[in-house]
Amino acid sequence: MLFTRFLVKPIYPPLAASLSCRYKHKHAPRVHKVVLTGGPCGGKTTGQVRLSNFFQKLGWKVYRVPEIATSLFTGGIQWENLNNEQQLSFQENLLSCILQFEKSFFDLANTGDQNTLVICDRGACDPKAYVDEEMWKTMCKRHEEWTAENLRDLRYNQIVHMVTAADGAEEFYTNENNPIRKETAAEARELDRKVAHAWLGHPSYDVIDNSTDFNTKVRRLISTVCHRLDIDVSDRLGVHSRRRRFLLASSLTNPQLLGPYQLSHYQVEYLYTPHQSKLHMVHARSADGGRSITYTHTVWRQSTTSRSVIPPTSRPPEIISNISEKDFQLFCLQRDLNHRSILKKRYSFLYENTYFQLDEYLHPKWSRGIVILETYTSLDGEALKLPPFLDIIKEVTDDHKYSMFFISKSNYPELICAN
Predict the structure, then answer these.
(1) What is the rounded CA–CA span in Å between residue 291 and residue 69?
(2) Other C-beta atoms within 10 Å of 203: how many?
(3) Most confidently modeled of 92-96, 209-213, 256-260, 353-357?
(4) What's the pLDDT at 416?
(5) Is there a contact between 115 and 142 (Cβ–Cβ < 8 Å)?
(6) Quick check: 328 and 270 in contact, CB under 8 A?
(7) In the prediction, which pLDDT does 316 show?
(8) Alpha carbon of 8 to those of 32, 278, 292, 304: distances in Å?
(9) Are 394 and 246 in contact (CB under 8 A)?
């Protein structure tokens, strides 16, 4: 079952006074350059999208530097068919491309007027993991500026190593999400080790292993970056955080009700597309009234030890990647007629250092009037302080009748009557 959603980027500028973030330099714009690295199937693609979304909601400008090697290999280059001289030339040109690509983003970030996060999908030292020591030394000798200090220590503010699923989460290891990847689990573990070795020595080096489930792994990634920036995110990213949802009495007829707590305003649309063994979601985020749109594809992947697809409300492991508008339209053509598209308004705000999202359903017509308040927290029961200015009826965290998947069903009215 493929799941499509459109998420509209903030229409109103985030209110700095509402944020609980404490920055060391409150007035000078900050630029934080972080590399996401690691072996194959470690969660880098999903991590950069989730990290980007999180910081955008905090009011940061976010740039994502794409992985250059994937673009080159999809052009027909086969590494195993290159001789030694060709491999040396390719890696040298690859590193030159990485440095130039990054410079384009770094220059924009350094001349901007707002806090900026630059997320690099791999970085300048990653090619070192794919060549022997002699070849790497030969490359660096040809370019005096290619020193460990320049390529590793001084170039980036932080390195985050996302450990391959082949090491600690073997049942979820796959190459399906990247067609150029052919490594076995054993080869992935060895490559992961080499990548780690290539970056060791950086003063801000963090490792995100597979000691937790995947969603917690991604939250640990975000928390690690926030920690390096001295940003207080309360308990939203805690290891034991979970999603809690609450039903409101009526629609939010007056958005000003959120008053000083309002952080950002979205419009969100979702659709489903049939799939036999996986759950998919396509997500479009737009800004400036829809003039600027980015598209994202999410896959909820079942475990290889499970025979059934995991329901969308249980938050199974995710793979998230950016797609083109053309790909997005192709997904839309495959929509499941058993599910209606969903349109809703979303308000994001902070209250008592807790980040909340409020969704007001607009379509289909039977969903009008449904308003759901949602947050991620490790607090249970009444320990979670809910906004007193909202008329909350009850908690619906485990009530599938209020899940988006259930509401989107074409026979939803009949199902509700039957219950």
Answers:
(1) 31
(2) 11
(3) 92-96
(4) 78
(5) no
(6) no
(7) 44
(8) 25, 25, 9, 34
(9) yes
SS3 291: coil
Q: What strands, in cross-sheet order, belong to the sheet with 354-363?
A: 318-323, 292-300, 279-287, 2-8, 262-273, 342-351, 354-363, 371-377, 242-248, 392-395
Measured at the CA of 310, the angle between CA 309 and CA 314, to 5 degrees, comes to 165
Contact call for residues 242 and 376 (beta carbons, < 8 A): yes
First to last CA, the chain: 24
Question: Residue-wise over 330-356: b if at least 16 C-beta within 10 A, else e?
Answer: ebeeebbeebbbbbbbbbbbbbeebbb
The residue type found at 331 is F
Fill in the DSSP letter of residue 400: G
Q: How far apart are CA 297 and CA 280, in angstroms?
A: 7
Residue with tokens 């799941």: 3
Residues paired with 37 in a beta bridge: 161
pTM given for the model: 0.63
Q: How far is CA 371 from CA 31, 77, 217, 301, 346, in A?
A: 37, 51, 30, 29, 10
Dist. CA 366–CA 335, nearest whole Å: 20
Q: How many residues does the chain have?
A: 419
* Residue of higher predicted confidence among 347 and 249: 249
| Segment holding 73, helix H or strand E | helix 68-73
- Is the link from the previous residue into 10 a cis peptide, with omega within 30 of 0? no
Three-class SS state of 97: helix
Question: In angstroms, rounded to a whole number, what is the distance separating the alpha carbons of residues 414 and 331?
Answer: 28
The beta strands (E) that lie in 169-314 are given as 205-208, 242-248, 262-273, 279-287, 292-300
In angstroms, the Cα distances linking 71 to 74, 98, 217, 374 are 5, 11, 27, 38
Rounded to an integer, what distance in angstroms lies between the CA atom of residue 155 and that of residue 299? Answer: 33
Please check whether residue 26 is in contact with residue 65, taking contact to mean a CB–CB distance below 8 angstroms.
no
Tokens 């082949």 sit at which residue?
166
Nearest Cα to Cα of residue 15 among 357, 262, 230, 351: 262
For residues 245 and 397, what is the distance between their CA atoms, to the nearest angstrom? 5
Q: How far apart are CA 76 and CA 36, in angstroms?
A: 25
